[in-house]
């Protein structure tokens, strides 16, 4: 019997991964918050994945964090702001050779998790796949993409990449995962806050070319200072390419705000500003953007952390 995949967080990405792993016949367990959620999940009869209009339900066994089963392979699929506390609850269940796969966007949460569970190997992921919930325990696979996985501390790829192959999860082992995470963070910082503040789709930023260019210049300076020159290369061109390619889409931060959900600002723009301050780097436009976004979130009654 192969090592079970414990999936923490039954949201969009957690369900997308759990359903595909289960579809491949791999052992999967879904960890939900508490007994009430477990009852609701069991009543639903499993996780439903909607792909190209076709819905399929997978009866992945559910459990609460208190379940005594040891955990050797944990996919952390919570939002960045929930990851550390959610993993901390599971710490007593982790085996001495446990491996965690961290799907969180941005930076900061990965280090926080790793500090909580120093005995575990923590592997970071950066994904361009897209999924959203259209009901409880139901997820729509909206955008096919790719997931890069890597461990900044150990370049050797884990054996379970074979499971991802079997589950047809497009992926690649990356020896420069930090560069990928920084690059994605920079893209998100240049695009997402402005879509919220200008109340527009990604394509709407074509009318704010100068503002985008100024932010890209400051973000590139930050990346250079952080020892990530590869992430800084042609940043503005890449940002403009993404704005053009995703012109009709609303950014993830725009969608969070529109749905009155907490954003991951602290792990994106907040992280960029914190690191800049640590390096005594003066990035006025980036700081001003953060202030404007924080003020906007407060005006909507949303948290700014
Ligand atoms: P989500 O909000 O849909 O799902 C998170 C789930 O975690 C929720 O069901 C929540 O209840 C659960 N959770 C939180 N704390 C928990 C706890 N203590 N115990 C058990 N469950 C807990 O979020 P998502 O969209 O799947 O995003 C997860 C991460 O992946 C984010 O960092 C996001 O930026 C990133 N990401 C998402 C997408 C996407 O298309 N959805 C794409 C790329 C990256
Ligand atoms: O990742 C994104 C998001 O919306 O979070 C893109 C499309 C790159 C915009 O920053």
What features would you highlight for this structure?
alpha/beta; Rossmann fold; 2 domains; four-stranded mixed β-sheet; binds nicotinamide-adenine-dinucleotide
Give a verbal description of the structure.
The chain is of the alpha/beta class. It folds into 2 domains: 5-175, Rossmann fold (3-Layer(aba) Sandwich), CATH 3.40.50.720; 179-299, N-(1-d-carboxylethyl)-l-norvaline Dehydrogenase, domain 2 (Orthogonal Bundle). It contains 12 helices and 12 strands. The strands form 2 sheets. An 8-stranded mixed beta sheet has the order 5-2-1-6-7-8-11-12, sandwiched between helices. Strand 6 (71-76), helix 3 and strand 7 form a beta-alpha-beta unit. It is globular. Residues 187-188, 191-192, 202, 242, 246, 251-252 line the site of ketopantoate.
| Element-level helix/strand string | EHEHEEEEHEHEEEEHEHHHHHHH
Compute the average pLDDT. Answer: 97
CATH architecture of the largest domain: 3-Layer(aba) Sandwich
The CATH fourth-level homologous superfamily of the largest domain:
NAD(P)-binding Rossmann-like Domain
Count of helical regions: 12
Largest sheet: 8 strands, mixed
Topology overview:
Layout: E1 5-8, H1 12-23, E2 28-31, H2 35-44, E3 47-51, E4 54-58, E5 62-63, E6 71-76, H3 80-90, E7 94-102, H4 109-116, E8 121-127, E9 130-135, E10 138-143, E11 147-150, H5 161-166, E12 171-173, H6 177-197, H7 209-225, H8 229-232, H9 235-245, H10 252-258, H11 269-278, H12 284-299
Parallel strand pairs: 1-2, 1-6, 2-5, 3-10, 6-7, 7-8, 11-12
Antiparallel strand pairs: 3-4, 8-11, 9-10
Helix pairs in contact: 3-4, 6-7, 6-9, 6-10, 6-12, 7-9, 11-12
Bound molecules: nicotinamide-adenine-dinucleotide and ketopantoate.
């Amino acid at each position: 019997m192969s090592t079970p995949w414990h999936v923490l967080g039954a949201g969009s990405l957690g369900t997308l991964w759990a359903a595909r792993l289960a579809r491949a016949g791999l052992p999967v367990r879904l960890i939900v918050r508490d007994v009430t959620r477990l009852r609701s999940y069991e009543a639903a009869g499993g996780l439903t994945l909607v792909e190209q209009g076709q819905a399929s339900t997978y009866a992945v066994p559910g459990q609460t964090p208190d379940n005594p089963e040891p955990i050797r392979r944990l996919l952390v699929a919570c939002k960045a702001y929930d990851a550390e506390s959610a993993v901390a609850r599971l710490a007593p269940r982790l085996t001495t050779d446990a491996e965690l796969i961290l799907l969180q966007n941005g930076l900061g949460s990965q280090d926080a998790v790793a500090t909580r569970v120093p005995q575990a190997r923590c592997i970071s992921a950066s994904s361009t796949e897209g999924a959203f919930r259209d009901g409880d325990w139901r997820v729509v696979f909206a955008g096919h993409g790719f997931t890069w996985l890597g461990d900044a501390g150990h370049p050797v790829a884990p054996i379970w990449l074979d499971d991802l192959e079997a589950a047809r999860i497009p992926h690649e082992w990356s020896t420069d995962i930090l560069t990928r995470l920084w690059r994605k963070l920079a893209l998100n910082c240049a695009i997402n806050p402005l879509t919220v503040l200008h109340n527009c789709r990604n394509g709407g930023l074509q009318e704010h070319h100068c503002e985008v260019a100024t932010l890209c210049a400051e973000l590139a300076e930050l990346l250079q200072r952080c020892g990530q020159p590869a992430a800084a290369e042609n940043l503005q061109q890449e940002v403009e390419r993404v704005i053009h390619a995703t012109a009709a889409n609303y950014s993830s931060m725009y969608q969070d705000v529109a749905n009155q959900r907490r954003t991951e600002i602290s792990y994106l723009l907040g992280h960029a500003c914190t690191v800049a301050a640590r390096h005594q780097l003066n990035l006025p436009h980036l700081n001003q953007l953060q202030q404007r976004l924080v003020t906007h979130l407060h005006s909507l009654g949303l948290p700014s952390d």
